[in-house]
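Below is one protein, fold included:
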Amino acid sequence: MHHYVYIITNQLNGKQYVGDHSTNNLEDGYLGSGVLLLRAKKKYGKENFSREILEHFNTKQEAFDAQAKYINKFNTLKPNGYNLDPLGGHGTWGGYLSEESRKKISKSLSKSIKGRKLSEEHKKKLSEAKKGKKLSEEHRKKLSEAAKKRPSNRKGQHHSEKTKQKLSKLNKGRKHSEETKQKFKNRIPWNKGLKYSN
């Protein structure tokens, strides 16, 4: 594996970007992924940018740490260049996240999301975003596996009394459309004799 710091130069305006990259193929054509750099490539065309490798390193972290030296040397911070962070990129502002840090962040985010109530506008946006979206086979598998791990009312598992009460409160006064009633009748054989009130 090759770890190195590179500099990208816009041949049209001279602006530059310093970054680090790790690869098995030095000729992989990698031209950086900084936000401002990506915008510039879109604006001026990828063909108008060149890359030069500045220094090779033994580890990814060493390459990452060396970016600051070259960002300073070539003065590539915005507005002179395309770098946003004087210490380098990767969205962590100054270093790579360890696996432990990622887990802590993930845990913290999931705690803050639990119990959060979405506004009607937010729900509508989410619903519209999902319309017509097809899930990949891999995504379906993950959803299926996650559903199997969750306790449900299937296969002899039962809701707790607390959950039953919550569900009861939620469903009180709820009226089903004719279409929904029909779906229930057709899908579940044991409720064919049920009558729905409007």
Observations:
- Residues 136 and 142 are 10 Å apart (CA to CA).
- The longest helix spans residues 60-74.
